[in-house]
Amino acid sequence: MNATLDVLPASSIAEPAGLLQRGWRRVLRRPVSLVGGVIVLGFVAVALGAPWVARVDPTATDWSQIRKPPSAAHPFGTDDLGRDNFARVVWGSRVSMQAGVFSIVLAIGVGVPLGLAAGYYRGALDQVVMRLTDAWLAFPFLILAIGLVTIMGPSLTNATVAIGLGATPTYIRLTRALVLATAAEDYVQSARALGAGDARLMGRHILPNIFSSLLVQATVSIPIAIIAEAVLSFLGLGVQPPTPSWGTMLNAAQQFLDSAPWMAWWPGLAIFALTLSFNLAGDGLRDLLDPKDY
Amino acid sequence: MAEFLVRRVAISIVTLIVISVIVFTGVRMIPGDPARVMAGTDADAAGLEEIREKYGLKDPVPVQYVRWAALALQGDLGRSIRTRDPVVSTVAKKLPITIELASLAVLIALAIAIPSGVLAAVRRNTAWDVLASGASLCGVSVPNFWLGIMLILFFAVRLGWLPASGFVPLWESPIANLQRMVMPAFVLGAALAAVLMRQMRNSMIGVLAADYIRTAYSKGLAGRAVIFRHAIRNSLIPVVTILGLQAGALMSGAVVTEQIFVVPGFGRLIVEAVFTRDYPLVQGVVLITASSYVLINLLVDLSYSLLDPRIRIGGAP
Lengths: 294, 317
What we know:
The complex is a heterodimer of chains A (about 290) and B (about 325).
Chain A: H1 2-7, H2 19-28, H3 31-48, H4 50-53, H5 85-121, H6 123-138, H7 141-152, H8 156-183, H9 186-193, H10 198-234, H11 246-253, H12 262-289
Helix pairs in contact in A: 3-5, 3-12, 5-6, 5-8, 5-10, 5-12, 6-8, 7-8, 8-10, 9-10, 10-11, 10-12, 11-12
Chain B: H1 2-28, H2 34-39, H3 45-55, H4 61-73, H5 87-122, H6 127-141, H7 144-158, H8 174-208, H9 211-218, H10 223-245, H11 247-261, H12 266-275, H13 279-307, H14 309-313
Helix pairs in contact in B: 1-13, 5-6, 5-8, 6-8, 7-8, 7-11, 8-10, 8-11, 10-13, 11-12, 12-13
């Protein structure tokens, strides 16, 4: 018994798997989330490479090709102005990605510092920020966006800002709650006992520890923001024609449901596929980052 | 209990005041003369002077706010620029239609969410659970306006079973009304069903692990009785809370759904108001929506503190 142990070479003892390796194994346990992540990356690639994916100009009208069903020349058919639907769906992914990502970046940029300050300093500041947040949350997302777009005028930038401001209170609340929990942890208290200042405590000890929860929330809110942009554009309050966006395409499609139903299929399928993939990937990311599971 | 009530009501009042300040400031941020913004571009000098007089536009801004808020509390939210009708009566005319739509949507959502959530929790990790969770994920991800267009395409254009759009008042013909409301209500309820089903499943799983459920089983109650008499009832409380919080999503959804199915409700009103730059109407609608959201959630919080005695001891929510 002892002899076998003696001859066992040191290298054959299992090395503890690295963080990346462990992470990868957990990812493989959720193939559906992996597929979702790959599809999201696919959409990112299409959005970045739109001029190379779609060779046709998405705004070029062709009066001889009005509302033609899908064919070899136009795989997704053409719209009411004879424009190629495939090119429009491809270019529309840019608009969706921009609105989805930038609005949430804005929400994080505004919400996280406010939530951090409220949760860290507590007191009167906390009360003021939280009452403002309560009031802000009372405006339904779309009603708030409609109100802001009314003031600022309809455009992609304003729609993005409106969606971002609509998502901000969620980040204020989440950050505050996370900060309240984290600030009470022993490692934060001991850093404070060692003389760390407010900025160091927040930047080095609290923020890195709440980062993963914020990231998970971002994967939940980006698909919501993408749908919100499509809705605003569908209502005519977002992207203005002739810029292709999935929402405006669906708006145009609505008038031709009986004669050209393909105009409604593809932009809607694109939104559905992108948001579903985001949600699947987000579920996987949540499992991956949730330390409770270890 | 009294302390909790007072605190909860006080927070709601503060929230309502902050909301009114935000709405008031919002309209002030529209570029141009505030009197012209409220009276419309085709108003004459006398009309402008009347508005200036009514809202005291020459006074300091805080004084203007107080005057505006006092008028709003008395139910005077100004007049629509386009129709010259009072904003409050315009909204009151449209609101019942949206309330009918939203109530039907909630009924449909509950009818889908509760049975499937219970089934997914009781048959956890089986094909039923996977199916229900998958359907819920799709429900959250599908853009409701596209779902609406697809339903019109299938049931109205292809099969011709239901009218594609339009509205018939309930009191004129209940059947024609329901025929036109069922698709929009389903579209509005689908996302809600998905959210509620998830919540129902999770809270049911939590309840099924509780001691009193084990006690109920061990005293010999049949599985069916335990689930129906003990588990479902206790799982419903968080579902009711989520339902209150989803009221905002429901209002947003109504805007889009009414637009697709041409239902002449509250949601269509706000979109029309935005396009005609009818600022007093937009302002009124936004203020009423946000205030009702606060009141709905106040009622939800108060009602479940009455339903569940444990919440009363906890004090502040």
